[in-house]
Design goal:
By secondary structure, this protein is of the alpha/beta class. The chain is 30% helix and 23% strand. Helix 6 links the parallel strand 5 and strand 6. The radius of gyration is 24 Å and the shape is elongated. The structure holds pyridoxal-5'-phosphate (PLP).
Length: 372
């Protein structure tokens, strides 16, 4: 018998990838960083590849090496690399790496030299996010260094890429400005003699709403897990994760009973309280105190009082709830349960954070659908 679990429907991931795949003629990179946005990196990656993803995208070198250790052979790009990492291990494992500065490029070149083969390199242009990437002013120096390292046989420039600021607000003018900078960077790249085969810019939102940004490759993340990057639009996606737990105990308490730490909630009348064994150690945000929605006994209830480390309490009135009943925090919504979008709205965050932070050593992921 189980206590708490994160169920992940791999067929939903397959359907979502197939839907995205059908909407573009570009190659598709399934982004599986952050342990597959909390869904489990390896099962998510395998399901995405089953459904036609061509590439896998991750943040760190370790994530990329873990994909290789699991035997996945699809092209992999890792894009967030602090200095001094054993990048040659990535090169030897056929992992593509990103560079945005001359210093990073030198590390990629040294890794290629050590591995005895050119490092497959994706040069990143900052088109406006002001996070990673070379500014357009620094781009010529990066191109020059890249052309030289390529001539030396230690790197191969296979990609030029960037990332959007505002693609989640379709029609935002920043997106057009970023696209223009990207085109400019590509023209400069051409003029430097480099011919990157993979030009890529689109995240989920741009994959779904801006075909003019698809270039050779799109990089959806959140959408493959069935969540929409654009508020108020579903795009026919099916959420893959359901977070739920079984009630530990119920009890009757009188009116005006203070509930949980700090007594920030008081019962209005005599009622039944139900204790659900999930808390902030499991990824339930403490900010969900008195606002997080949970389906129990056929009704969506709001968490009563503070979210504790290990548990939450629900005020169930006179409804016949009992120990062992299943309380669902979020899921696809198909059975009346709240969604990750409802949770995001309740605590003023984004659905990405709700699913990515959910799960812990004591909340097993259980896979539904065809499991690889
Ligand atoms: C996380 C990430 C993505 C995927 O973004 P979504 O909004 O989840 O589709 C794509 N590209 C980069 C560089 C990322 O960091």
């Amino acid at each position: 018998m189980w206590q708490a679990e994160a169920r992940v429907d791999l067929d939903a991931i397959r359907e979502n990838v197939a839907r995205l795949r059908a909407g573009t003629s570009a190659e598709l990179m399934a982004v599986v960083k952050g342990d597959g946005y909390g869904h489990g990196m390896l099962p998510a990656a395998t399901a995405a590849l089953d459904a036609g993803a061509d590439w896998l995208g991750v943040c760190t070198l370790d994530e990329a090496l873990n994909l290789r250790r699991a035997g996945l052979t699809a092209p992999v790009l890792a894009w967030l690399l602090a200095p001094g990492l054993p990048l040659h291990e990535g090169v030897a494992a056929d992992v593509d790496l990103a560079a945005a500065t001359v210093g990073q490029l030198a590390e990629l070149a040294a890794a290629g030299e050590r591995a005895g083969r050119a490092t497959r390199t994706h040069l990143k242009i900052d088109t406006g996010l002001s996070r990673g990437g070379a500014t357009i002013d620094d781009w010529p120096d990066l191109l020059e260094a890249a052309a030289k390292a390529q001539a030396d046989g230690v790197i191969e420039v296979v990609g030029v890429w960037s990332h959007f600021v505002h693609a989640d607000s379709p029609g935002h003018p920043t997106t057009d400005r970023q696209l223009a900078v990207f085109h400019e960077a590509l023209a400069m790249t051409e003029r430097s003699g480099l011919r990157p085969r993979h030009r890529h810019l689109a995240n989920s939102a741009a994959t779904l709403t801006r075909p003019d940004t698809h270039f050779d490759l799109v990089r959806p993340g959140i959408a493959i897990y069935g969540l929409s990057p654009v508020a108020g639009e579903r795009f026919g996606l099916r959420p893959a994760m359901t977070a739920r737990a079984r009630v530990v105990l119920t009890k009757r308490v009188p009116a005006d009973t203070g509930v949980s730490y700090g007594h920030t909630y008081r019962t209005e009348r005599e009622t039944t309280l139900a204790v659900v064994p999930l808390g902030y150690a499991d990824g339930v945000p403490r900010h969900a105190s008195n606002v997080g929605p949970v389906l129990l006994g056929g009704r969506v209830r709001t968490i009563a009082g503070r979210v504790c480390m290990d548990q939450i309490v629900l005020d169930c009135g006179d409804d016949p709830v009992a120990a062992g009943d299943v309380a669902t925090l979020f899921g696809s919504g198909a059975d009346g349960e709240p969604t990750a979008d409802d949770w995001a709205a309740a605590i003023d965050t984004i659905n990405y954070e709700i699913v990515t932070r959910f799960g812990s050593a004591r909340v097993p992921r259980v896979y539904d659908g065809q499991v690889p």
